[in-house]
Amino acid sequence: MKKFLFITFSLLLACVAWSQNDSNDIVKVGDAMPAFTIVHDDGTQLTSSSLKGKVILVNLFATWCPPCQKELAAVKDQLWPKYKDNKDFVLLVIGREHTDADLTKYNQKKGFAFPLYPDKNRAIFNAFAKNLIPRSYLIGKDGKVVYTSKGYTDQEFAELMKQIEGALKK
């Protein structure tokens, strides 16, 4: 029994260490934002290059992910009301492996006032990371990553809000 508990505990620690491992991250603080194109179901596109000079928050989520739900609720209640009218700020909430149709249906349930963007083939997600959601990447006006987070906690979200404020002042 002790051997079983030891093995179970060791595997748990290995999983936690692996999930926190920077090798799962492609984009890190100080890196330039990767170039990407959001392609809508109707073929219209939004390119990352069209957002130059703005503070950009890229949030990667999935509709089935419980921590993502908590984070998007905080975006809805705290972040979006504060920054939605700021001309220097862009929020890109991107649904990993979701289409516009999926996101429209999801938004009907959630009632978000901010736009949701599709990433049905993981092309955008794969430019930023290998796995784990939710993820957020804050890009400064110079196009470089100033803050990253994965997972969701109230403390992390408070830090994200602080980092947005700082990036907008630069």
Automatic annotation (TrEMBL):
Residue span, Thioredoxin domain: 27-169
InterPro entries listed in its UniProt record: Redoxin, Thioredoxin-like_sf, Thioredoxin_CS, Thioredoxin_domain, Thioredoxin_ResA/DsbE_sf
Keyword list, A-Z: Cytochrome c-type biogenesis, Redox-active center, Signal
Entry superkingdom: Bacteria
Subcellular location: Cell envelope
Signal sequence coordinates: 1-19
Protein name according to UniProt: TlpA disulfide reductase family protein
Organism taxonomic ancestry: Bacteria, Pseudomonadati, Bacteroidota, Bacteroidia, Bacteroidales
